[in-house]
Amino acid sequence: MASSGDVTTLLGEWSRGNGSALNQLLPLVYAELRAIAARQLRSERVGHTLQPTALVHEVYLRLVDQRHVNWRDRAHFFGAAAQVVRRILIDHARRHVASKRGGGVQCVSIDEAKEAAAPNEIPILAFDHALDRLEEADLDLARLVELRAFGGLTIEEAACVLKVSTSTVERNWRTAKAWLKRELGSELRS
Questions:
Q1: How far apart are CA 149 and CA 89, in angstroms?
Q2: Residue-range definition of the domain harbouring residue 159
Q3: 20-47, pLDDT tens digit by residue?
């Protein structure tokens, strides 16, 4: 993993229009973006056609295509990457369901934390709809779930992105997981 300072410095230079900073940045963040993509795709259905490398390339292209972003730091960059990963996976799932008329359900883990006894897997589109409902109820909780579930950010990294303490993130993470488990109860039991 690249040092946070190196990534932050290059993001700042890129934000100020230095194109060579972008070329230096890619090798520093590629491995971490690929790890996020691989972790996310492990939760997907068997035979999923999207591969980690393709997901990383799509994330990277969408992030590079954004204009006038003032990247604050590494955590801000990976927070934005989490949002892009979510959009790509949801778009892919919608296309797949549309082409199969409802077949081939994709699954995503609510809580990737290792302390969970067994993964709670739910269809990704149901998870997305629940996350949209959570966003209506509590935008901060929804953003935290997106950062953790789609971006693979740690508690500390999420705290940095959200500009709150780690204890607040830990408390909100427990609340968000409980809310999602209640909302998705029927999906989790099947």
A1: 12
A2: 4-189
A3: 888 898 888 888 888 888 887 776 666 6
